[in-house]
Amino acid sequence: MSLKASWCNQLLFGALVVGAASCGKAEKQSESANEAFALNAPPPPAAPAEPVGGANRDTPLPAQVGPPAAATRLLIYHAEVRLKATTMLRAAASLDSLVRRNGGYLSAATETRADGEWRQETTIRVPPLQFQVLLNSLTGLGTIEEKKLSTDDVTAEHADVAARLQAKRAVERQYTVLLAKAQKIKDILDIEEKIGEVREEIEATESRLKSLNDEVAYSTITLTLYQPLPQSIPDAPVVSLGSRATEAFYDGWQLFVSLLLGILYLWPLVLVAGFSGWWLWRRRAVIKPIKPVDTTKS
């Protein structure tokens, strides 16, 4: 019995030794794996430096360091040019070629012949980058007699219109949610009326925003191109003596008729003057001077 117990004790001790050895080996492998992972892992982010001078630690740091990006300005360019051409047909053909070459187009054109001029008024739309290039190229069409340039900055207006459009769309969404929840007919009609008003304002705002975008995307040049037209002067007619005598007689007759018409126009004055003269003559004829009686003869 004692031998058997000692044999069992030896077996139990050997099992304990093998288990302890295997556990120690596993722990070493785990530690080596952790060390390898720690070596290959990226370094932790550096802690922000504490502000100097005891500044408040709750103050947020700036998001980016460096100069701020320049704001994009929205500019609208206008130009009015009056140009005198030697040959209208050739100048018009060259103008069409210049506009196409610079990526523009003709939005309107009118042509008239009046006051001794053959005149063509054209509205040209061109990208802003080619605006000055096209203006400089117009000198090849003829003589520039007048040029006016103007620039409108619509950056603030564009931002305001875009913000108002966004706000109106948010109001429309709120009304749509209320419409889905409304149950009374009166409430439904009132909300639909409000939605209609808001949508009209949205359409007007979208139209203005689209117009601003179009004016910014394409600059405008109003060109007046004209060619002087030769005017023929008629020869002076040859007047004979008989023609001059007839004209003089006609002029005299016209003078006589004019005087007669003038007297007729003054008939009230003529009538008053005639009546006054007749009355004075009548009174003078009735009242005669009394002759003194001669008493010596008796």
Q: Which CATH class of the domain at 75-152 is shown?
A: Alpha Beta
Element order, helices and strands? HEHEEHEHHEHH
Task: Trace the largest sheet across and list its strands.
Answer: 2-3-5-1-4
Helix content: 55-70%
Shape: flat
Distance between the termini: 233 Å
Under the CATH scheme, the architecture of the domain at 75-152 is 2-Layer Sandwich
Helix/strand-derived category reads alpha+beta
Characterize the biggest β-sheet.
Answer: 5 strands, mixed
Number of strands: 5
Strand content: 15-25%
Helix run count: 7
CATH topology of the domain at 75-152, by name, is Alpha-Beta Plaits
Average of pLDDT: 75
Rg over C-alpha atoms, rounded to the nearest angstrom: 55 Å
Low-confidence stretches: 1-70
Supply the key terms.
Alpha-Beta Plaits; five-stranded mixed β-sheet; 298 residues; 7 helices; alpha+beta; disordered N terminus; 5 strands; 55% helix; flat; 17% strand
Please tell me about this protein's structure:
The protein is α+β, with helices and mostly antiparallel strands. Helix content is 55%, strand content 17%. It contains 7 helices and 5 strands, in the order H-E-H-E-E-H-E-H-H-E-H-H. The protein has a 5-stranded mixed β-sheet with strand order 2-3-5-1-4. Helix 4 (155-181) packs antiparallel against helix 5 (185-217). The termini are far apart.
